[in-house]
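Listing S7. Sequence submitted for prediction.
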Amino acid sequence: MSYEYKLVFGDSSTAQHVIDEVKESSSCVRSHNGDLYLKDHSLNSSGDYDARLIYEDERSLWLQVNFQSAALYALIKAALDGRDFRCFEDGDEDEEVDLNEAFRV
């Protein structure tokens, strides 16, 4: 079962910055049509990927999380590098959560 979150950024450069940073990590196992497929190699999960980042527009990304992963949480948090963002479960603005909740850590 996967969980989906919409990451909404305070400026127009953060979404592309996150994509660029994450794409260069060893956790990025595939990039296709703007989507990044991420794998936490320490989990030994059976799925093709453990999380996916989907570029929506210059101010938002969708995050799909398939497995609890402290490593992928740390990767995304580092890519955000203190930038202003909000995380909404299922994209619902009434369901704001912390990023660590999205990764279940």
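Caption to Listing S7: primary sequence and predicted structure tokens for the chain studied. Strands lie at 3-9, 28-32, 35-38, 51-57, 60-65, 85-89, 96-97. The two ends are 16 Å apart (CA to CA).
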